[in-house]
Design a protein that fits this description.
- There is one protein chain.
- Helix content is 16%, strand content 37%.
- The protein is an alpha+beta fold.
- Helix 1 packs across helix 2.
- The longest helix is centred in the middle third of the chain and has 20 residues.
- The N and C termini lie far apart (39 Å).
Length: 240
């Protein structure tokens, strides 16, 4: 599969569905010309949902991943699911409740980056929880203090937005990159930045809420020692 998929979620994370056409298909994988489905990456899971055909057939999307080529997004379905031919028109519809939780938690992890001033060595998020690993030689993190600071930033209801900079601008500002093991994609001419008020600014291709207040209250569940220089901070939604 080599066709590029227009990634609607990069400009509008709140779009829940879109009209699309099949560009490539095979048992277990369907590619579209455009999609609202986020492909797994940067610690954020791929979206799930359904592809609705004009004849009423609904094909559940189990996961969404990046293809081998630049700009390819594959909607993974069951191996025995219908395989619509290229050119087939359909509606791609997200499991919105799950996606919105990903958006809330992803934005919360950006706040966590601003609370703990240390390089990030890893991270992952889900519908109800998330975690970041920090390069810290000593376990000097205080759980109650981090939780209080996070919830203060959430309650501030700071605006969240995106903007783009060139590869050259990013190279001239290396401090923008907080992750040690995962570098933002370059070579495409520009890089997307996530800006959380005056709180956090760093490259990110994920989906996010419009303001920190939309995250809702969170709890620091635990802080773990994961190695000589690795401290893991685990976050959950209080509602969970």
């Amino acid at each position: 599969m080599t066709a590029v998929t227009e990634q609607l979620f990069t400009e509008d994370a709140y779009a829940r569905s879109c009209d699309a056409q099949v560009t490539q298909s095979a048992p277990g994988a369907i590619q579209l010309d455009r999609t609202v489905f986020y492909a797994a990456g940067g610690g954020q899971p791929g979206d799930s949902g359904v592809l609705k055909l004009a004849d009423g057939t609904e094909i559940p999307v189990l996961n969404t991943v990046k293809g081998e080529g630049v700009g390819e997004i594959l909607h993974l379905v069951a191996d025995d699911a219908p395989v619509p031919a290229p050119g087939t028109a359909l509606v791609a519809e997200l499991d919105w409740e799950r996606r919105h939780k990903h958006m809330r938690m992803h934005t919360c992890l950006h706040l966590l980056c601003s609370v703990i001033e240390a390089p990030v060595t890893g991270g992952q998020l889900g519908a109800d929880k998330g975690r970041l690993d920090f390069d810290l030689p000593e376990l000097t993190l205080e759980k109650t203090e981090i939780e209080a600071r996070l919830n203060e930033l959430i309650a501030r209801d700071a605006a969240v937005g995106t903007r783009w900079i060139s590869d050259e601008e990013l190279a001239a500002q290396p401090d923008l990159v907080r992750t040690m093991k995962v570098q933002p994609p370059s070579g495409q001419g520009r890089v997307r930045l996530l800006e959380v008020g005056d709180i956090d600014l760093q490259p990110c291709g994920g989906t996010h809420v419009k303001s920190t207040g939309e995250i809702g209250p969170v709890t620091v569940r635990k802080i773990e020692n994961k190695g000589k220089h690795n401290r893991r901070v685990n976050i959950i939604f209080k509602e969970a």
